[in-house]
Amino acid sequence: AGIYGPIGPIWKNDLAQWKKAVEINLFGTVHCTQAVVPHMIRAHKGKIINIAGGGEGAFPRFSAYACSKSAIVRLTETLADELKEYNIQVNAIAPGGVNTRLLDQVIAAGQEAGIHYEKAKKQKASGGVPPERAAELAVFLASDASKGLTGRLLSAVWDDWNNLDIE
Fold first, then answer.
1. What is the reported pLDDT for 1?
2. Which residues contact 129 (CB under 8 A, 6 or more apart)?
C-alpha cells in the first residue's frame, strides 16, 4: 500500500493528510517488518523487499510521499545492518514511473502538481514503465542470485541489477 498524500506546496498541505501518508507508507512497512522478522530470525534466513518508490532526491509538491519513501530507504539500510548476522537480506526497489492510480492522482491535481503534471500526462500517453520490470527485480532480490546483497536501493529502470557485483 502506498499513497501520495497531499499534492502541492507543503505550506498549503493538510497536515492530517500529510501524517496519514507517512503512517501508511512508512508505518505500513514497519508493521509488516515487525510481523515477519521474528520468524526469519528463528529460521536464520530471509529476504525483505521494500518498495521505496520516490525514495531518492527531491520531489517538490509531494513532500509527504517523498519523506515517507526516503524513510523507507533509511529503514532498509538500518535493518540490513541489524539483520545481517541472521542471514536476512533487506533491500528496496524503486520501480520507476509505472502507470498506477498514483499517476491518475497527479493528473487530477493539475497545476498543484507543478512540473510533475506535464510529466504525468506524457507518462500516461507513453504507457509508463511496465510493472513487470519491478516484478523481475523483486524476483531477483527474492532469489539465491542476490545472496549476500543487502542494504541497497535498486532502480528497476536505471540499475543493471542482473550484472551486479554482489561481493
1. 67
2. 95, 96, 97, 98, 156, 157
The DSSP call for residue 141 is H
Cα–Cα distances (Å) from 69 to 56, 96, 120, 141, 162, in that order, read 8, 13, 19, 19, 24
pLDDT at residue number 145: 94
pLDDT at 55: 58
Asked if 37 contacts 81 with a C-beta cutoff of 8 angstroms, the reply is: no
Mean of pLDDT over the chain:
93
Output 78-86 pairs: Cβ under 8 A, ≥24 positions apart: 79/33, 79/37, 79/48, 80/150, 80/151, 80/152, 81/151, 83/37, 83/40, 83/41, 83/46, 83/48, 83/150, 84/150, 86/40, 86/41, 86/44, 86/45, 86/46
DSSP state of 99: -
Residue 2 banded pLDDT, cuts 50, 70, 90 = confident
- Residues belonging to the active site: 65
Q: Write the pLDDT tens digit of every residue in 22-63.
A: 999 999 999 999 999 999 999 999 999 999 986 567 889 999
Backbone φ and ψ of 52, nearest 5°: -95, -15
